[in-house]
Amino acid sequence: MAASRRALHTVLYLLLLVILAWGLVPILYMMLSSVKTQVNMFSMPPKLIFQPTFDVYGEMFAGRGDFAEFLTNSVIVALVTTALSLLLGVMGGFALARGNFKREKDISFWIISTRMAPIPAVILPLYLIFSKLGLIGTTTGLVFAYTTFNLPFALWMMSTFFKDVPIDLEEAAMIDGCSKFRAFWRVAVPTAAPGIVATGVLCLMFAWNDYSFASIFTGNGTQTVPIAVSLLVSQSGIKWGQAMATGTVIIMPMVLCGFLVRKYMVRGLSMGAVK
User: Fold this and answer.
1) Is residue 167 part of a domain?
2) Coil, helix or strand for 234?
């Protein structure tokens, strides 16, 4: 019995290593290629020991390109979208969790069903609305588009997290003299903090990585980093060095963010698990 269990664990660990290699090797190759010369980048077999060069990054940030502007737009749009989605999602999620609504489950399902809609299905109506409001080609329009898509997800997630917060804690706070809002702010929100962090990270990832909305609703001066990648492909070829460096710049903030809040992510996602 013990031998069969060890064999099973060995197989599972090997499978896990294969999955990790499948996901991590392309990322590591991209990051290493971003500091290689064009010759070393395509050498076969790949060179793991080489003299790194950061010329591509220098050209991207200090050259004549607009990459710094793209990066600034991405940071602004992603942070503002995440803040709006969390602000409205936390308040709305608490209302869904604590309110006594008729057909509450139907309302929750209707909210999350709007998030399930494919992006191409919502681009056309949003484009018509934004064109009437003069929001096409602006970062404000992109923020509204991302918030429209992120908010249902944030509402649904936060309602699930707040349902796991014992209502007795809020009632005890109100007995001690707190108002309903004060009990929500001082008791419910800190208790659901891991869930808030998890929701915020997921909303941030969508806003940071999105290409579809950014390609439609932005214009000159408001484009984001994912659009910068598409501009590296032209009839004359692909600028592989800048493509690898841009991909690294795109992925590293999310990797660092996930690393810093990994404990909150695990607690938050398990907090809303179905029991």
Assistant:
1) yes
2) strand
In-domain check, residue 234: yes
pLDDT, position 265: 63
Ramachandran angles phi, psi of 238, nearest 5°: -110, 130
Question: In sequence order, what DSSP letters do the residues of 72-134 get, joined into one string?
Answer: HHHHHHHHHHHHHHHHHHHHHHHHHHHS--TTHHHHHHHHHHHHHS-HHHHHHHHHHHHHHHT
Cβ-based neighbours of 135, under 8 Å, separated by 6 or more: 141, 144, 217
Query: Residue 271: what pLDDT?
Result: 54
> For 124-156, how does the pLDDT look when each residue is reduced to its tens digit (9 = 90+)?
888 999 999 999 999 999 999 999 889 998 998
Indicate the number of domains in the chain: 1
**Residue whose entry in the numeric block shows the structure tokens 């869930």:** 195
| CATH code for the domain of 73 | 1.10.3720.10
pTM higher than 0.70, yes or no? yes
Residue 46 inside a domain? The answer is no
Quote the tokens at residue 169.
């804690």
pLDDT digits (tens, 9 = 90+) for 45-63: 777 777 888 888 888 877 5
Q: Which domain holds residue 131?
A: 55-271
pLDDT tens digits, 86-98: 999 999 989 888 8
How far is it, in rounded angstroms, from Cα 142 to Cα 75? Answer: 12
Give CA–CA dist 102/201, Å, rounded.
Answer: 32
